[in-house]
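step: validate -> pass
step: tokenize input -> pass
step: predict -> running
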Amino acid sequence: MTSRSRPDRAIRRAVLGLGTIGLVVIAAGACLEAFWLLGLGVWAVIVAMLMELVYRP
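step: predict -> pass
step: emit ->
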């Protein structure tokens, strides 16, 4: 098994954090019926997915 380098861990942590924040914002937007919160959450998840695709080792 190979160990991951520090930049890989930092990107992974950023992707997980951004995805989690996005899902929380989506849930809050759904509960409050605020479409702008839903939009922000969806964009955060999209950015997290793109980061995962671009920076995947």
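step: describe -> Residues 6 and 39 are 32 Å apart (CA to CA).
step: cleanup -> pass
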